């Protein structure tokens, strides 16, 4: 029983990280129709911004406080990178989807090369607060505390994004701009600025995912964002392209399937199980690739 509890909680914690990684991707695609292959670069930017910030802060400061400050800096950096990418690369190509893919793939490759050139290819250790490194006993199982943090942040993000899209004027403008951009512009609303805000929000969320994933892995590395992006795409496709709720459910399912397969079958089978789950969903519900409502 205790083993099952441990596997389930760690699976949900991993699913929470996948949701954090995929939510920005789903948001940008669902609202703007942009399939952003550079999303992993935003996660890498956040992870490295946090790592550099934590190293720059005084060693006398508590690790938890340094992590909090670093997370704020990382979110700001991610938002800035997202806004810059949208303004310079994406905005001229909104009606050219193939070019969007090529540009974002190029940005992803270039960013990895840039990070490797500046900080090297080797992973760098990241300081972890003692509280997050500890465990708590639940139903006889010793559960990592950090998994509960990932779940809490994912739940807060999910609720915040839904509230933003459904209960604020900005959300109304975003959804209206997607449905009928010409009409919204005729009302004197700058849709381009609104779409830039969406991309900046996607970059901020991605950066936060990068920070928390570096805490999960214990290191930062240039290829980390790309590795997480693969699971983010799987989650988005399984959940329905552009569906925030579907993304949340799919992220939890993927995390659980991966952990259960790794524990009860063999190490490494989890990745194969996730791919098989993706194939099954596409066979039974091919409309996942066509998009869904948030």
TrEMBL record:
Subcellular localization, as worded in the UniProt entry: Cell membrane
Record's signal peptide: none
Keywords: Amino-acid transport, Cell membrane, Membrane, Transmembrane, Transmembrane helix, Transport
InterPro entries: ABC_transp_permease, BCAA_transport_permease
Entry keyword annotation includes Membrane: yes
Domain of life assignment: Bacteria
Predominant subcellular localization, coarse grouping: membrane
Transport in keyword set: yes
Membrane topology: Multi-pass membrane protein
TM segment ranges: 6-27, 34-53, 65-89, 101-119, 148-165, 195-216, 228-256, 263-284
Family statement: Belongs to the binding-protein-dependent transport system permease family. LivHM subfamily.
Record-linked PANTHER family: ABC TRANSPORTER ATP-BINDING PROTEIN, BRANCHED-CHAIN AMINO ACID TRANSPORT SYSTEM PERMEASE PROTEIN LIVH
The name this protein goes by in its record: Branched-chain amino acid ABC transporter permease
Protein's organism: Phycicoccus sonneratiae
Taxonomic lineage of the native organism: Bacteria, Bacillati, Actinomycetota, Actinomycetes, Micrococcales
């Amino acid at each position: 029983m205790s083993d099952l509890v441990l596997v389930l909680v760690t699976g949900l914690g991993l699913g929470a990280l996948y949701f954090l990684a995929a939510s920005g991707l789903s948001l940008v695609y669902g609202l703007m129709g942009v399939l952003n292959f550079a999303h992993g670069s935003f996660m890498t930017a956040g992870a490295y911004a946090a790592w550099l910030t934590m190293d720059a802060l005084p060693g006398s400061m508590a690790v938890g406080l340094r992590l909090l400050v670093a997370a704020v800096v990382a979110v700001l950096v991610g938002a800035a990178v997202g806004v810059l990418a949208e303004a310079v690369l994406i905005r001229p190509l909104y009606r050219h989807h193939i070019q969007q893919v090529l540009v974002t793939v190029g940005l992803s490759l270039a960013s990895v090369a840039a990070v490797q050139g500046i900080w090297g290819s080797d992973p760098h250790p990241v300081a972890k607060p003692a509280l997050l490194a500890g465990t708590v006993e639940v139903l006889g199982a010793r559960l990592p505390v950090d998994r509960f943090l990932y779940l809490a942040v994912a739940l807060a993000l999910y609720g915040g994004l839904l509230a933003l899209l459904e209960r604020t004027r900005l959300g109304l403008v975003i959804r209206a701009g997607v449905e009928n951009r010409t009409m919204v512009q005729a009302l004197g609303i700058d849709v381009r600025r609104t779409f830039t805000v969406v991309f900046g929000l996607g970059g901020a969320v991605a950066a936060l995912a990068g920070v928390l994933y570096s805490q999960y892995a214990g290191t930062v590395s240039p290829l980390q964002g790309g590795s997480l992006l693969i699971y983010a795409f799987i989650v988005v496709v399984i959940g329905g392209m552009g569906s925030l709720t579907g993304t949340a459910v799919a992220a939890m399912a993927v995390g659980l399937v991966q952990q259960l397969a790794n524990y009860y079958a063999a190490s490494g089978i989890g990745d194969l199980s996730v791919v098989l789950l993706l194939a099954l969903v596409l066979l039974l519900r091919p409309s996942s690739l066509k998009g869904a409502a948030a």
